[in-house]
């Protein structure tokens, strides 16, 4: 066999035919053009317009994850937790994806504590998204996740808990299902409490696990804790005392506010009826109302000390000046103002002690309307207090030009003018603090203002304190305001309620007072709306509430007693004597 | 010349392996960090729940009820209160201030 010689390419016999040269050049240039096109495209994608592909690539592995931030806690002045958020999970579904077998549906319904029918009903909607249940405990959510049902998803949320329940309800308010403040302090300080969720970019592997942190887009900021001025112990004392009084006197509503005289802090604030902020189904408007801030009432006689104080300040009267209140009536124009008891000649101090309308009116008519108006507005009546609390009432103080003499007269004993309970308590700071007013604060004050706004002179405030102590003493209108071991001072108020423009036979009983009288530490204001168990005088309805709260609160604060304890030592006998005589 | 090349190749290979090992180590440490962070968050949540529990148990209403009913406590009678002034005077029960 002859060995075949390899045939070199260029000696291929086929080529000998001599193809036209242009064909090879055509092929060559076509190939070159393709190559150029590819190079150009590659250059374009890699060099000039590379963001698009890079973004596409990144989206395959990189994810931006939200880093949740929690809402700040609300704590009382001693650090007791009043409101706290803990994570919960909400179960939602895409109905078109959620095709559940009857067994699965039964299991899910059981875990969600509903019936299978209701569950199926919820899934039968045409919406793309439906919540099955919100705010489940994490443990329960874990069990549901373990079922691995199609179309059933979870999302993390926060739920706010209020361990204080009914006791703190009106101060704290509450948050909605989205963890935003809706009422009370939760709304007033929402900005401070709300956290801002952060975000970070991570790389995930095929199994969805985060393998690398690329960058923190935004660090999360947890909401700040809010330290309230409130003292949980005093708050509880006030709550139980008020509720007790509500029951004894079958009242429609009631409110109490306790202020610290030294700092202007709100130590307690209670409303009745109240509600449980942890379970807000079937809430009524009456329960939600914060009567301390949003309701105004005609204060009645608790207004008198301010008029007397002004008269003293202007040098119109002295505490010992005698005013004849006989025969218990005084006529202003066509109207007549009368006292509930006839008194006769009374000193100015006795006018306060006995709460004489006639005496007060006679003093008020000696004052210029402008003076009275200026004092009222300096005391803060007619404008809402600067507390930032939602829905604060301003009360009604009519412009001085529209005052008629009869109105000036009725305002002096607290009718024809309306205030909120917090305004009233705030105004009494002027007596308790030697004539100065301090701005109030819902949050804890660590460095109290030393000087406030002066309304009365120091002497006037001291004289008024003495008179108010008489009013809460044996011969006054509120002997039942007295407590063991401390001297108290305060004023009762019993006002007819306005209904449809007329004064009805319904009453608002109130008491505003402070203790210890020698060096005031607390102001306690009590308001009971429509007591209907027979008694309605402030001295019998509201004053005992004041006494109960003040006694407990002063002890809780460790304030040294300023009254001799001896007369009450034999507790049984003294107690009897005290109730029998209506005072000690 | 060849020896130098071989040396450089060995260097490059070992460095490449080092990169792989370091990357692996980084991923492992990172997932550990993730786990610990999740644990920290879990503990934070638990702490919140414990605070909640604590303030529920320590609610004044509950404390008062137990103090009154179970332990039989009551507020001191006036005669039992002793006021100590300045810390050196000896005060007697019920002595007026």
From TrEMBL, chain B:
Signal peptide residue numbers: 1-21
Gene Ontology biological-process annotations: cell division
Annotated coiled-coil segments of the chain: 19-46
InterPro entries reported in the protein's UniProt record: Cell_div_FtsL
Protein keywords: Cell cycle, Cell division, Cell inner membrane, Cell membrane, Coiled coil, Membrane, Signal, Transmembrane, Transmembrane helix
Principal subcellular localization: membrane
Residue ranges of the region described as Disordered: 74-97
Pfam families per the UniProt record, alphabetical: FtsL
Subcellular locations according to the entry: Cell inner membrane; Cell membrane
Membrane topology value: Single-pass type II membrane protein
Superkingdom of the organism of origin: Bacteria
PANTHER family according to UniProt: CELL DIVISION PROTEIN FTSL (PTHR37479:SF1)
Known function: Essential cell division protein. May link together the upstream cell division proteins, which are predominantly cytoplasmic, with the downstream cell division proteins, which are predominantly periplasmic.
HAMAP family: FtsL
Family, per entry: Belongs to the FtsL family.
Subunit structure, as described in the record: Part of a complex composed of FtsB, FtsL and FtsQ.
Protein name (record): Cell division protein FtsL
Organism: Aromatoleum buckelii
